[in-house]
């Protein structure tokens, strides 16, 4: 226990150039020691952070980070209950919503983003890739992807999504 505590203290006081990666792992995958006196067998890999260019200001750095945030498509629901999907300052999609449901405007925006995330997961599967290749070869359509931007209940969308995923697992007919 004292040796481990001493190793931790030494690691905190050593210069960054002397710190590397653990030499081995135990059966559980936790870092192990190659020998009691040497915790790291390889030289360190120092990752350098990108710095601002000389003469650039903090406001320019903020503008860069804001533009990076704008590149991702985000849903926003305005006071008129119209959901809009924006990406890089461009309007991609617009959906009128009803204010009668029990969900807030922010709730609908989050729900649409979560649904699109689920669909992206489904499209990243091997089964979807097979259907896409089949559609290109034969010209026939595969299972219809559920629409994320519909004002339906959560359970209704989940049922459509589950049916779509089930259909993806069926082999395309030649």
Strand order of the largest sheet: 3-4-5
Beta-strand share of residues: 5-15%
Please tally the helical runs, counting DSSP H or I stretches of 4 or more residues: 5
How many extended strands? 5
Report the structural category: alpha+beta
Shape verdict: extended
| End-to-end Cα distance | 65 Å
> Sheet with the most strands?
3 strands, antiparallel
Which value, in Å, is the CA radius of gyration? 26 Å
Please bin the fraction of helical residues.
40-55%
SSE order: HEEHEEEHHH
Pfam family, one: SLBP_RNA_bind
GO molecular function: RNA binding
Organism: Effrenium voratum
InterPro entries: SLBP_RNA_bind, SLBP_RNA_bind_sf
Summarize the structure.
The protein has helices at 2-13, 58-71, 105-123, 126-138, 154-168, and strands at 24-25, 31-32, 74-77, 82-87, 90-96. 7% of the residues are buried.
Q: What features would you describe in this structure?
A:
42% of the residues lie in helices and 12% in strands. It has 174 residues and is α+β, with helices and mostly antiparallel strands. The protein has a domain at 70-168. The strands form 2 sheets. A 3-stranded antiparallel beta sheet has the order 3-4-5. A two-stranded antiparallel ribbon has the order 1-2. β3 and β4 form a beta hairpin. α3 (105-123) runs parallel beside α5 (154-168). The N and C termini lie far apart (65 Å).
